[in-house]
Amino acid sequence: MSQLIDGKKISAQVKEAVKQEVATLKQQGIPVGLAVVLVGDDPASKVYVGSKKRTCEELGIHSEEYLLPASTTEEELLELVKKLNQSTTVNGILVQLPLPKQINEETILNAIDPIKDVDAFHPYNVGKIMIGDFDFLPCTPAGIMDLIASTGVDLTGKQCVVIGRSNIVGKPMAMLMLHQNGTVTICHSKTQNLKEITSKADVLIAAVGKANFVTADMVKPGAVVIDVGMNRLENGKLCGDVKYDEVQEAAGYLTPVPGGVGPMTIATLMRNTVTAAKLQHKRNQK
Ligand code: GUN
Questions:
Q1: What's the CA-to-centroid distance between 221 and ligand 1, angstroms?
Q2: What is the CATH number of the domain that holds 238?
Q3: pLDDT, tens digit, 9 for 90 and up, residues 248-278
Q4: Residue 71 burial by CB count (10 A; 0-12/13-18/19+): exposed, middle or buried?
Q5: 243 given a catalytic annotation
């Protein structure tokens, strides 16, 4: 029977530390602000954006929400990003992905000032992560690293397997585990003999986007299993990428959905926003 990794509890600790830091910065006359931009009305994105706003309020972070219609053009969104780059009340800019198809995501992400890029999606920040000299880490992978750290498992020399190769999770996740001396394998939809690879993993990250994809026979007994999935079933229930009931019997540690990775992503976003505010303050002092 595996041990539950409690993302709710660990994220609460991160948020408490952020809250105290925000209060200290405020006393020094350094306000902290985040702008969240949502284009269109994707229901899942709306939920994420709402909880980001609520968490800002909870921690004393100024938040600005920009809800734009699905018909917004690339030029209009670029205008807003440029305005937010210049804004003195906004330290962090998050443009919720995915964007409607008339807007090129890369064009938008490239337009965000890297010092306000709290998602760490700008090529400048992606490159810094690759080198291992970074200001921001992408929220979901950084949150997962905190969850892994909470188990006490040291990644040095361990087989670490990521299923999924997205820019948001899979690729940066692999890089962060490599920085901690893991032996990392990235699997994806074209991978052959997937089960053979995953069943050797000491740490398995499931970022597939398919409900119940990871079954007990794919998991090494005692492994740390992190479920990044957020799949909405037909009955409205939220479900991860891991078949929880059976993998729970095999894994050593397992994250639940909800209450695992999700809360950590938001907590890390808040931490990144504070980092952004401090970096900008330092730059402005020069
Ligand atoms: N869509 C899904 N995850 C994320 C994220 O971490 N950041 C942004 N901006 N969009 C997302």
A1: 32
A2: 3.40.50.720
A3: 999 999 999 999 999 999 999 999 999 999 9
A4: exposed
A5: no
